[in-house]
Amino acid sequence: MALDREAAGILSRGWYKEHLEPAECEYLLSFRDRSSEANLAVSLADRLNRQACTDTGRICVRIAVATGPCPANCGFCRYAESVTRCRFFDIDDAQFGRLIQEIEAFGDVREICLVTTGDADLTNLCRYIGIVKDQAPKGTQISVDTRDMDDGEAQTLRKAGACGAYHARRLGEGTDTQFKPEKRLNTIDSLVRAGLAVTAGVEPIGPEHTAADICGAFYEILNRNCCHAAVVPRTPVVGTKFNSAGTVNPARLAQIKAVLTLASGWYIPRIREPTPGCFVNGTSLATVTCGDEGVAGAPKQNPVETARRRLFNAGYLHLMRADSSAVDLDLGYLKRTDSV
Length: 340
Ligand code: SF4
Fold this sequence. Notes:
Structural class: alpha/beta
CATH superfamily: Aldolase class I
Number of helices: 11
Number of domains: 1
Strand content: 15-25%
CATH topology: TIM Barrel
Bound molecules: iron/sulfur cluster
Shape: globular
Number of strands: 10
Radius of gyration: 20 Å
Distance between the termini: 42 Å
CATH class: Alpha Beta
CATH architecture: Alpha-Beta Barrel
Helix content: 25-40%
Oligomer: single chain
């Protein structure tokens, strides 16, 4: 079946890194996932991403360092104190140091992101940043995913050694959370002003969200001097009102990511990683999690092997090391790193 002419024109402009309007993105998202228009969007975005990262993947390990029942009670969150079954957890310093050494045993984890809940003690977080600085190879990018903050607090994290931060402008902010969208965006601006490489999240996307909801949130974080955007689906949590709503289907999520990738191809971040990929994180960034012993059933094994295999299976030819050099990502490398 022939491609819709208007969609083909918008996709072509995205491929050539022209500005796309929100209404144009919404038009592209009006096609069903797996339609010819959606498939072409996914293919073009993937090619843009592979060009931008020169077939080099990166690994980010997210470590929950301080978690527990969170009084912010966001309506979708597994830590919300009204629904959670997790207990308070602060990772032990010595155990944390050993975990960092284990994760960086082969020096090929580019980013370690320290995760807390919404009532985090930033002094505590700064101590954990110091442990990563001491234990990880030189060049490892240390980032944080923590609570809202002002300029001074963002600068404190920067001085402690953080070089990046994740912060989400959530869908349903102010309705499903007790935070105003402006507060979340102000925190992103504070993190940017402190000189941190910020990844802004568009999340948590559920099957009920419209193209207008998603594009509206994305265009609020675009051109805010962030380095990347992450487009993240909602995970059902028992006890929350969204548990029965299910999850956005993977093909639709791929279509959403692709359209937003094509919408922002023109954007050049203020802080540039070597081989960064596109503004919207694609498959070149393999993110894995560990360390969350406050949650029953959390993975205990080193997750980096999984990340290496994921990048290999997706066809990436190189892997960026902690020190920003690259290593060939071939079967021999997987064997040498105990990943197969
Ligand atoms: S602030 Fe963060 S950790 Fe706390 S309930 Fe909301 S999403 Fe969960």
